[in-house]
Amino acid sequence: MRCQFCNCIESKVVDSRPADEGNSIRRRRECIGCGRRFTTYEKIEMTPLMVIKRDGRRELFDTEKIRTGILHSCEKLPVPMQQINEITTRIEQKAYAHSDGEISTQDIGDMVMEELKHVDDVAYVRFASVYRKFTDLGTFMEELQKLANESKK
């Protein structure tokens, strides 16, 4: 691993521990050349997962798109970044486990909505309003009513 300070290619691992709920390994390294320490992460290289869009197009699965959607839904709400990262990781794991190389945006959106339902009602409604493309107040109110009925249970 190349040192970020002096570009030396030799380093030794000083400490190693699981990170990201066991999905990666965090390593503290010490450069042999300059003696400075830096951190690297090792993660399994996943086989490509294709997302089938509503119009039939296919594109590579992108975790950052999910994180961005969740961030927009949780904007100005008391949802910690760590929780958003955990949700994103769970959805990514479910997406890879759920599929045989392809998954629809419908399935991904449903996973996000299910996660947000347990986090914050406002974030859930915000995401649902974009994801379900509410066109009028009636469909929006129906979704709010479903949410209200579920929280009563």
Layout of strands and helices, then pairs:
Blueprint: E1 11-19, E2 24-31, E3 37-43, E4 50-52, E5 58-60, H1 63-73, H2 81-98, E6 102-104, H3 105-117, H4 121-131, H5 137-152
Parallel strand pairs: 4-6
Antiparallel strand pairs: 1-2, 2-3, 4-5
Helix pairs in contact: 1-2, 1-4, 2-3, 3-4, 4-5
Stretches where pLDDT is under 50 for at least 5 consecutive residues are: none
Let me know the largest β-sheet.
Answer: 3 strands, antiparallel
Round the Cα radius of gyration to an integer and report it. Answer: 20 Å
Q: What would you call the structural class? A: alpha+beta
H/E order of the elements? Answer: EEEEEHHEHHH
Descriptive report:
Helix content is 45%, strand content 22%. It has 153 residues and is α+β, with helices and mostly antiparallel strands. Strand 4 and strand 5 form a beta hairpin. The longest helix is centred in the middle third of the chain and has 18 residues. 14% of the residues are buried.
Précis, in short:
This protein has 153 residues and is of the alpha+beta class. Helix content is 45%, strand content 22%.
